[in-house]
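Notes from the pairing session

We agreed to fold both candidates in a single pass and log them together. This is the raw record for the first candidate, unedited. Please don't reformat it; downstream parsing expects exactly this layout.

Candidate A
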Amino acid sequence: MASFKPTVIQTYPKLGEKITEDTIYWRNYKPAVQIKEFAAVTKIDFSPLPPHNYAVTASTRIHIYGPHSQEPIRSFTRFRDTAYGGSFRGDGKLLVAGSEEGRIRLFDISSRVALRQFVGHSKAVHATSFLSDGFRVVSGADDLSCRVWDVASGVELSSFTEHTDYIRAAAPSKLNPDLFVTGSYDHTVKVFDVRSGSSVMTMQHGHPVECVLLYPSEALLVSTGGRYVKIWDLLKGGQQLVSLKNHHKTVTCACLSSTSNKLLTGSLDRHVKVYNSSYKVVHNFDCAASILSLAIAPHDEVVAVGMTNGVLSVRHRKHKENETLTSQKRRGPAYRIFVKRKTFAPKQDDFLVSKPVKQHLKKYDKQLKSFEVSKALDTALQTWTRTKKPEVAVAVIMEINRRGTLKNALAGRDEESLTKLLNFLLKHITDPRFSRPLLTVGDIVLDLYYQVIPQSSVVERLLQRLLELLGQEAEVQQELLQVLGIMDTLFASLTLRREVATLAAPPVAQGSHLQAA
């Protein structure tokens, strides 16, 4: 009796996955390090100076972390209520933050003492930042006003009340110390000029604005709110260039990488998306909870994500030095018996003793060996296999069909196993890699179960979807056959014309010979 041959799993090309330089670059990060905070992390800001420590605002305190530390190296706890918007100054020596009580506090990084308190807002201050000159602070609050403060004296210099709802985002210009941008829940983004005392540009985002961001050239402005990320051209009077809708929930934060100014956005759908210069998504970071804050260190060394569950997720970039160290081969044993290794080529007079290799069968192969085709199909349709390795399930189906027992394997199924099978068919039946065997399975399933009144409305709905999908696939195949027939006719007519032209034209040598004669 011949020995049992395991099921051959074919390798299929992955569809829709293009490996680019951007993809390789953003995959080069270590697994995330989780740091637990006291409450939701609402703001993360990296210091512009080495070693690029970062400030994490959560609950009633602001923690300063080192790039590789998992414990805070300094904490600011002078807040009576929730703190918001902790931001560094351009020299990395001062830190400013708002609070729920409406006060703005200024801290010295080298000490824990609050240097200044700016009092003037009547409600919570969510957005604070230094203007580019470093001597003034801009703030946006829930009292519908944004204000500019003098760092030295703590005096309010100017106030703007053009917004009609909460102000939750502010971004100062780094090229002009008198310009800054604000985003509000009144669906507008405004550019203010301190010298004029009013806004000089207004953009309608269409949704409550959660974050605003200026490109380094300051020709482009990014605003996030709702499910949309919108890019505005400030040189053309605030004209909208792009509207992105890649997230499934509200986009809460955005930042720019230092390499080619790649845009990163975070959302309540627990995803961080990376866009290239054409605003196409090139990478995606998955998180465990909804994202509230996002920041990236200079030179893209660290990506920090703050979530609603109070967890700070930190990813560090891999370095080539570490890769070379880990990739170095360990020195093999120095025993004489291992000198030849596996690459040793035997000589002609050598006597080879072959060791039989024990064959380990997969669970579905053992069941196929015992002619338990229905159980083998159930094993191939388990959750991990059908989602991560659909080619395994397709290979088992093809093997069962080759044996002529496919109908027996599909018959007599309960509600749970039939639901798994139908979901697998609906997901992969239109995949060109698997469509040929799965179309056969779909026809058999409909013949077996569609006329029988199902006990579950879920199964009935899935069967109806499968029937509609097979009808659509049949129409597509019919249209493709028509196109193929048209192309065959065109090719045949072109071939016939070429043959006629070849026969009609006499050879040049023969004609010249007749003329000479």
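Candidate B (folded immediately after A)
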Amino acid sequence: MCGIVGAVSKRNIVPILVQGLQRLEYRGYDSCGVAIHAGSLGTARGAVLQRARSTARVAELMAQVRHDEIEGGTGIAHTRWATHGAPAVHNAHPHFSHGTGADAGERPGRIALVHNGIIENHDELRAALQAKGYVFTSQTDTEVIAHLVDSLYDGDLFEAVKAAIGQLHGAYAIAVFAKDEPHRVIGARAGSPLILGVGKEGGENFLASDAMALAGVTDQIVYLAEGDVVDLQLGKYWIVDKAHKPVTRPVKTVLAHSGAAELGPYRHYMQKEIFEQPRAIADTLEGVAGIVPELFDGQPDEQGRSASAHRVFQEIDRVLILACGTSYYSGCTAKYWLEGIAKIPTQVEIASEYRYRDSVPDPRTLVVTISQSGETADTLAALRHAQSLGMEHTLTVCNVATSAMVRECKLAYITRAGVEIGVASTKAFTTQLAGLFLLTLALAQAKGRLTEDEEQGHLKAMRHLPVALQAVLALEPQIITWAEDFAKMENALFLGRGLHFPVALEGALKLKEITYIHAEAYAAGELKHGPLALVTSAMPVVTVAPNDALLEKLKSNMQEVRARGGVLYVLADGDTRIESGEGIHVIRMPEHYGALSPLLHVVPLQLLAYHTACARGTDVDKPRNLAKSVTVE
């Protein structure tokens, strides 16, 4: 989602700022921009704020910066995913304050600011600032903060920012500099991530919303805590906590990888990531020799201590899963495993809904969060809400070991999907499923519900997953044939039963995310309770048909579709005796995979969405209106 990069340096920092934005492009954005203190290199330009903004890609911004000869040693940069105000240059960050007076909107003031998050009381603040004479040139909540800081500024930017954030309600990560203080950038965070990067040369220091933005610049990272305000200057920095008391945060060595991964032989990152799934699963399971609770022990704290999964697993008797989007569907799949194998009652909640309703907390609950980035705002808020209700046993399944989710949960399983650039998640989903299946087995063992033979059988199946996935990927030519049909459609239904209903949900989500075809998923038994009214020859019906206990019921549901003239596209296990014919297209899966079948059946659905999007000519990796890491509520 929105990205921040900031710096104080003795060298021209513009190339580093823009490269940082390029490393964050995969998160999704509508506009981008950079602002520089032109006098911060001691040039003859003096105390002038310069800015370039664009609604095109970061490469276009770089060309604009070069054309305008923008350079300086102090600056901030931003990629924006629109919340308040349309994606337009006047709404793009960075925002300048404009002071007051008749011509205020025509001249830059003394404050430059970028912001991630949402300010909930922006309307009230805007009205108060307008009453003081401030002129607004955008529809954003961010410009409110810039004017607010300006109104409180009296020569000390650190003090002005501290005073300003005391008036903000909502979530924010901000980076600010002032015309009168050429070698200073202030950062603050509450509800949105922000890190400090300690430079390796010349006393330079950096701010970013993600360590990846600073890959190749510095690996010395300070993770700012909730409510922190940081003051960056040349050769020094200091931090105060939410009570504005001086505090020391540990400096960690973080080897962030650049998001600018090579595409290689692939047409898009999404296709590349679909085909990386065998390796991602193998990496995620690397070192798993047996099922032991220690696989989920928490990250060591500053004293080198970590929470014990063995103790926690003994103390819980139910599971609450909190997640959003694709991660929510992985949680829905895990519910079937946790209740069917571990015999543990499991509730799966959409994170954005959970904290806004009255629930019944149980301190013997294991709260499991699932997130690719570990920075998903709704999931973090739901986690904190659960903790506030007295549910202290927390565990995350996450792809980023340094994320807020990992730091705030006592236990963790780190998936090893690697960087996922395509907005539509693929390998993150299947590696989450692998981690959740391991969690199921570990809990089953802790509760005495897993025999040694069962453990060995499950481990054998998991080790075979990379080979099984390779066989599924070999189905791509058949999927392309389906995609040619789907590219002409505007609606689709997806059906699944039992363990494969969440797979159908995920398949429908993928199709609508990147093709813009309206797609819905249903438990197949629900067809006759409403959705069957939609079925015509123009409504393709994708059916996930493994050879399980519900197969015969599913076949009956398929007949209901055919009787109404519907056209079926069926992913069938080889021994299901479902044959292609008039109005029914069948792709046979290479093998039946039992409890782990969802990891295989979802891959053809990913490929179907991908190739349909290619046929329709949409932007596969950066679908409209969507972002990779959703860091606003």
